[in-house]
């Protein structure tokens, strides 16, 4: 089945725009596959170093270059819940490789930081650029040229996009991504949010707040709300980089382990040494990028991916724009409501039919490219399934349920929650911005109010505590872009603005910073570009200026005469406190080189 004409037209537009860069990229992939795709080019000294720690039998077969060697890139650490399960994966993968007649080695580790830990802290200013560090660390791990394919153990925020970028720079190698799965459901997310608001209002203490947070984030696995981490897993499956049905199986279960072993064997089966060679650089094309965007809209996914997908596509020679993302939003309905877009969590989404149901609904509606190449083979239709554990401990797949298990969480196409996607691009005299509409009630998607201009989220929180914000306003938080301070998430604003909205005030946020996949019920125009530090007009807004945010019309404007706005100067502010401490001095070069948010906010610039 082919995609609908409007989806095909947007895809073709991306293809034509990308053609010069994509052709160069594919030439490089083919050249690498033909000359350096395995250990045959290594000298004896190179090879001896590469397998010195292997067993005698592994040395013998690696020396003969007859069997595939699987590289493992891991983001394991045991401080972060989502990454702790990866501790045992290398041994599972190595045994699966041996069972399949191959070898597996841990090629390298990449850092994994958690925005949940660093929210409102100096370390958050490293978060976005950690994606680029992860890409570079991936490249270092694979640079030894010992491998015929690679598996990638990563799940959260910047980790998966960084791994994808790194994998695409080794586009001649097959790549299979292996998720860890979400933690089991704990305290409902809306109850956690309620306690946060009570704490912000001084109605409960820190002990009560910590108890609620600990009951919500309570065990191994990703957080259960639909933020960037779980949006990552949706993307990897709908783009064909996971094995079918792998995304949302809880860690520490027999099925999770079986899926991991299966993924390792599949990676070995698609190397150049076999008959199903599937280099990731060719597999990841314009169609798979469009499929990812469609999935993002259909599920109301993370705003971060408006940057990550641009950067990931660039690594494959594909030029993606926010206009492409915006046009696809108009074509794709919202089919999932997972917190913060609804009350249920990602485990409820999975139980209602999950990815198999979602992909089938989108395929049948002509909203996805069915003919893409995946790590599982040709076509996306095999992903319309549910993975289960067989009696012998292997994975079996059954067709996804014909009906949603809960239409309040996962809707069939004819009963979509809204006719357009969960993300929208805003344009106007303040530049371009992103808003997540899926969590915002329709009656709150238009706000026109005077600006309160601030240069940090702490300043707004202080103003709230001082009782200065009990009125209608639009908070303009500037100098939060990639070049200014690394574009931190400003998620701590959610609680304060939510309280004021609940009190009946019309409030909104406009910022050149980020609000993450957890963007909530308050309308927030984020990723404003150009950023204030680059002279963007967000830096020209003054206290009291009327600002209009219209998410339905897709506009963001300060209601000031164009002639006056042109004469205003962006103020110079002291950002020196953002340049040192917590490792921030090491990222000065990243801030200097960073591209605009709508170009992916990458420090690699024109290198990709």
Automatic annotation (TrEMBL):
Chain ranges of the Dihydroxy-acid/6-phosphogluconate dehydratase C-terminal domain: 408-601
Segments traversing the membrane: none
Pfam families cross-referenced by the UniProt entry: ILV_EDD_C, ILVD_EDD_N
Pathway(s) it belongs to: Carbohydrate metabolism; Entner-Doudoroff pathway
The protein's required cofactors: [4Fe-4S] cluster
Cofactor info, note text: Binds 1 [4Fe-4S] cluster.
Record SUPFAM superfamilies: IlvD/EDD N-terminal domain-like, LeuD/IlvD-like
Protein purpose: Catalyzes the dehydration of 6-phospho-D-gluconate to 2-dehydro-3-deoxy-6-phospho-D-gluconate.
NCBIfam families per record: edd
Listed name of the protein: Phosphogluconate dehydratase
């Amino acid at each position: 089945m082919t995609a609908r004409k409007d989806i095909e037209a947007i895809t073709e537009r991306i293809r034509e725009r990308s053609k010069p860069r994509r052709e160069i990229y594919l030439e490089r992939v083919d050249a690498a596959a033909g000359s350096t795709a395995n250990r045959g080019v290594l000298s004896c000294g190179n090879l001896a170093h590469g397998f010195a720690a292997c067993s005698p039998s592994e040395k013998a077969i690696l020396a003969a270059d007859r069997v595939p060697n699987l590289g493992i890139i891991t983001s394991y650490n045991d401080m972060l819940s989502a990454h702790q399960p990866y501790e045992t994966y290398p041994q599972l993968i190595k045994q699966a490789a041996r069972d399949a007649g191959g070898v597996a080695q841990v090629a390298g580790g990449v850092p994994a930081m958690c925005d949940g830990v660093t929210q409102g802290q100096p370390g958050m200013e490293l978060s976005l650029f950690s994606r680029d560090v992860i890409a570079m660390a991936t490249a270092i791990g694979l640079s030894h040229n010992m491998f015929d394919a690679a598996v990638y153990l990563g799940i959260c925020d910047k980790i998966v996009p960084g791994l994808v970028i790194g994998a695409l720079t080794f586009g001649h190698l097959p790549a299979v991504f292996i998720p860890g799965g979400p933690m089991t459901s704990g305290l409902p997310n809306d109850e956690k949010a309620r306690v946060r608001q009570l704490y912000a209002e001084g109605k409960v203490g820190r002990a009560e707040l910590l108890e609620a947070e600990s009951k919500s984030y309570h065990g191994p696995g990703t957080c259960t709300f639909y933020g960037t981490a779980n949006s990552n897993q949706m993307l990897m499956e709908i783009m064909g980089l996971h094995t079918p049905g792998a995304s949302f199986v809880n860690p520490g279960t027999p099925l999770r382990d079986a899926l991991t072993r299966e993924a390792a064997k599949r990676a070995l089966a698609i190397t150049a040494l076999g008959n199903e060679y599937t280099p990731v650089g060719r597999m990841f094309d314009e169609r798979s990028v469009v499929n990812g965007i469609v999935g993002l809209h259909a599920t109301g996914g993370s705003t971060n991916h408006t940057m990550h997908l641009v950067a990931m596509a660039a690594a494959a020679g594909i030029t993606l724009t926010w206009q492409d993302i915006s046009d696809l939003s108009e074509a794709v309905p919202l089919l999932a409501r997972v917190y913060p877009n609804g009350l249920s969590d990602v485990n409820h989404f999975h139980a209602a039919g999950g990815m198999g149901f979602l992909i089938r609904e989108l395929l049948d509606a002509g909203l996805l490219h069915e003919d893409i190449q995946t790590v599982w083979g040709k076509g996306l239709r095999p992903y319309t399934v549910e993975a289960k554990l067989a009696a012998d401990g292997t994975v079996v797949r059954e067709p996804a349920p014909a009906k949603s298990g809960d239409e309040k969480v996962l809707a069939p196409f004819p009963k979509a929650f809204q006719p357009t996607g969960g993300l929208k691009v805003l344009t106007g005299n303040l530049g371009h911005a992103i808003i997540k509409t899926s969590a915002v009630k329709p009656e709150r998607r238009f706000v026109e109010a005077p600006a309160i201009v601030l240069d940090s989220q702490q300043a707004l929180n202080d103003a709230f505590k001082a009782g200065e914000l009990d009125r209608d306003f639009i908070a303009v938080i500037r100098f939060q872009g990639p070049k200014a301070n690394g574009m931190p998430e400003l998620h701590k604003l959610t609680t304060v603005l939510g309280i004021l909205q609940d009190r009946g005030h019309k409030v909104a946020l406009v910022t050149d910073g980020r609000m993450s996949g957890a963007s909530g019920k308050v309308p927030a125009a984020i990723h404003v570009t150009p950023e204030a530090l680059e002279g963007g007009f967000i830096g020209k807004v003054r206290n009291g200026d009327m600002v209009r945010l219209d998410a339905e019309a897709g506009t963001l404007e300060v209601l000031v005469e164009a002639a006056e706005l042109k004469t205003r100067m962006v103020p110079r502010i002291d950002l020196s406190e953002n340049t040192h401490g917590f490792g921030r001095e090491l990222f000065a070069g990243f801030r200097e080189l960073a591209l605009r948010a709508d170009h992916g906010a990458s420090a690699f610039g024109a290198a990709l």
